[in-house]
Design brief:
CATH superfamily of the largest domain: GroEL-like equatorial domain
Shape: elongated
Largest sheet: 6 strands, mixed
CATH class of the largest domain: Mainly Alpha
């Protein structure tokens, strides 16, 4: 093994730490309500403008393996908690930075890892049992959404967007069930919740713009092709008979549909539709929509309270709905509104430009996710970095219980936790040290809900301001940051590996 293929212990750890800190510094300025945006440009000139940490790290060109580990922990945070990716990465970078100082004091990486692990367990236990609060009131859910939106493009319509997020999750049940459709043009204030399903499809043949009946078929209306490769020799008359039989079957299917929709309507089918069938249906004022995804069929079924027929001859009845056809930016959409009780909700987002609209979508995704977490029973904590300072205060008071050199690692972990409110204050143009000292003093005096005042400087009661966030978001951020930090600190060599065959 060559010397260039083996970086020794001290150099390996320092290289990994510095690469991870570089990634953290990249997103640090985006944290908080006064965070700045990043413009990301690729070699082809494609541009993304965002302050969403998950998007930045996903699109960032990271080549160093240590940096990639930090980007990976951000993806985990996003998948579990929807938001908090920037906090996780910034905290990871600070933990690694503090570990460098512990190296200089003579602490072994294993001692640091043990102390960090103990600190993370103590902090999250205290967070869960002493800091967290519980409520599912609508006012709290709106405040959760506002906290997630603040600092993003959506902030221009904070109240309206927050109410919209809560209404969407209440209607659909959770964030994953909320369908989102974006239409360029207009402003954020024009966004609204559509009580139904929006299908990005058009009729096969031109028809009217409004219908009140629909059918759902989980197959196609065309001649099925055989998977077997069979060669047959037939005369012209036999071939015509074969073709006529196929047409007769298709026509019979079309007649089943006409019988179910005597006054016209719309039929959605999963697969393709034969042109002859389309023409026959059009004569009876029946519009056809082909290649409809199964997920859309199921959504339409819930809206119309109509079962999906597996074939035309299994059709029992038609569904009562209101179907309108609209053109948005040269694309046709079908708006299906059902009269039956259902939990389908489609969020219609509007934005002035495509770049603005993309950022609006990212902001809504975060807000919908955190509202869904609390609605499902998760507790909440005061936002703005308040819970991080309270955990840090608790760790300092109880670090002596661990004893030994690990106590130094626990104290370093406590110092790192305070990077979150410090960064929020710094990005707002205020002194981070003064903010942290003021928060420590207020918390020790019993004012346990204070946080950075990004407008005037200093601290203020964030709970009274409605700055709250899900417990799980903070808990996962602390655990993930501790875990990735320990994983990086345990690496003492970077060696060349064989190419994957």
């Amino acid at each position: 093994m060559s010397e260039t293929g083996n970086v020794k212990q001290d150099k390996a750890q320092i290289h990994n730490i510095r690469a991870a800190k570089t990634v953290a510094e990249t997103v640090r300025s985006t944290l908080g309500p006064m965070g700045m945006d990043k413009m990301m440009v690729d070699g082809h000139g494609n541009v993304i403008v965002t302050n969403d940490g998950a998007t930045i790290l996903r699109e960032l060109d990271v080549s160093h393996p240590g940096g990639k580990m930090i980007a990976e922990v951000a993806r985990t945070q996003e998948s579990l908690c929807y938001d908090g990716t920037t906090s996780t990465v910034v905290l990871s970078g600070q933990l690694l930075g503090n570990s460098e100082m512990l190296f200089e004091k003579g602490l072994h990486p294993n001692v640091i890892c043990r102390g960090y692990h103990e600190a993370a367990q103590m902090a999250t236990q205290y967070l869960t049992t002493e800091i967290a609060k519980q409520s599912k009131s609508r006012g709290l859910l709106v405040s959760i959404a506002k906290t997630a939106i603040t600092g993003k493009t959506l902030e221009n319509a904070l109240d309206a967007v927050s109410e919209l997020c809560v209404s969407a999750v209440e209607k659909a049940g959770d964030a994953e069930s909320v369908k989102v459709v974006s239409f360029p043009g207009g402003s954020i204030e024009d966004s609204h919740l559509f009580n139904g399903v929006i299908v990005n499809k058009d009729y096969v043949l031109e028809g009217d713009d409004n219908y009140s009946k629909l059918l759902l078929i989980n197959t196609g209306l065309e001649t099925e092709k055989s998977e077997d490769n069979i060669q047959l020799s037939v005369d012209a008359q036999s071939y015509q008979t074969y073709k006529s039989a196929g047409k007769a079957d298709l026509l019979a299917n079309a007649k089943h549909i006409v019988k179910a929709l005597p006054k016209g309507g719309v039929v959605f089918v999963r697969d393709g539709i034969n042109d002859m069938v389309c023409s026959h249906l059009k004569k009876h004022n029946i519009m056809a929509v082909r290649r409809t995804p199964e997920s859309t069929l199921r959504a339409l079924s819930r809206v119309s309270n109509l079962p999906i027929a597996q074939s035309p001859d299994e059709i029992e009845a038609a569904g009562e709905v209101l179907i309108t056809r609209e053109r948005k930016n040269d694309i046709w959409y079908l708006f299906v509104h059902g009269e039956a009780e259902h939990n389908e909700a489609t969020l219609v987002l509007r934005g002035a430009t495509s770049h603005t609209l993309e950022e609006v979508e990212r902001g809504f995704d975060d807000a919908l996710g955190v509202v869904s977490l609390v609605m499902k029973g998760q507790n909440y904590v005061v936002g703005g970095g308040n819970s991080y300072v309270r955990m840090a205060t608790y760790l300092r008071q109880h670090a002596a219980q661990i004893g030994g050199r690990a106590q130094m690692a626990i104290e370093a972990f406590a110092d790192a936790l305070e990077i979150i409110p410090a960064t929020i204050a710094e990005n707002a143009g205020h002194d981070p040290l003064d903010t942290i000292l003021a928060m420590r003093h207020s918390i020790l005096q019993g004012e346990i809900t204070v946080g950075p005042d990004v407008t005037e400087g200093g601290v203020k009661d964030l709970l009274a301001e409605g700055v709250v966030e899900p417990l799980d978001l903070v808990r996962q951020a602390v655990l993930s940051a501790a875990e990735v930090t320990n994983a990086i600190l345990r690496i003492d060599d970077i060696v060349a590996r064989r190419p994957v065959q």
